[in-house]
Amino acid sequence: MNRTHFEKELEDLHYDILKMGALVEEAIGNSILSLINHDVELARKVIEQDDRIDEKEVEIDDRCSRIILTQQPLAKDLRIVLTGLKINTDLERMADHAVDIAKTTIRIADQTYIKPLIDIPRMSDIVREMVKLSLDSYVNQDTEMARTINQKDDIVDGLYKQIFRELLTYMIEDHKNIDQAAQFLFVARYLERIADHATNICEWVIYLESGQHIDLNE
């Protein structure tokens, strides 16, 4: 194996994953912003730009496959590439959930919201912090940083339960609230799933360094 060439390939892989991560963070932020502001145009932009993220996912998959085929890495070198593949998949799924949120915006944009959006934006801010933390831990191969993500995930889970209880109350008080409250519940659920994917990335970072799979949600 040409070590210099292999290391250059890994640098390019890291750069591609960071670039995709930035696109995903932007998509999450814009999807929530569109929901807060009833901004259909911004929601449509999130949906349209998902094609760019999908293209980047394919590029990264192709890069990883090419590295494996041409460089035939072993041991930790192979784990680096496999981790890149797994993180790529998690990022693409996060982007899909951002699209789901944007579609929710479009569905209810012409409605007066049954309540001010407070906890959902708070939840989104923490989720975006988790995405950044997971990517930073990957690039720096920092397992200690990766292990801290469960603290933020616990906060996200707590907010989800709080949002669920509050929206359930709105549904019970007036059946006319049921449809919109359900839409907001879906949004909270999408954010929770994004947080789970960020946690997955941190688990892959730990696998990269140790060769062992652990569950950070235990």
Automatic annotation (TrEMBL):
InterPro entries referenced in this protein's UniProt entry, alphabetically: PhoU, PhoU-like_sf, PhoU_dom
Name of one Pfam family that matches: PhoU
Transport keyword on record: yes
Entry GO CC: cytoplasm
Domain of life where this protein originates: Bacteria
Keywords associated with the record: Cytoplasm, Phosphate transport, Transport
Location(s) in or outside the cell: Cytoplasm
GO BP terms: intracellular phosphate ion homeostasis; negative regulation of phosphate metabolic process; phosphate ion transport
Keyword check for Transport: yes
Ranges where the PhoU domain occurs: 17-104, 120-205
Main location: cytoplasm
Subunit organization: Homodimer.
Role this protein plays: Plays a role in the regulation of phosphate uptake.
Family according to the record: Belongs to the PhoU family.
The protein, known as: Phosphate-specific transport system accessory protein PhoU
Naturally occurring in which organism (per UniProt): Thermoanaerobacterium thermosaccharolyticum (strain ATCC 7956 / DSM 571 / NCIMB 9385 / NCA 3814 / NCTC 13789 / WDCM 00135 / 2032)
UniProt lineage: Bacteria, Bacillati, Bacillota, Clostridia, Thermoanaerobacterales
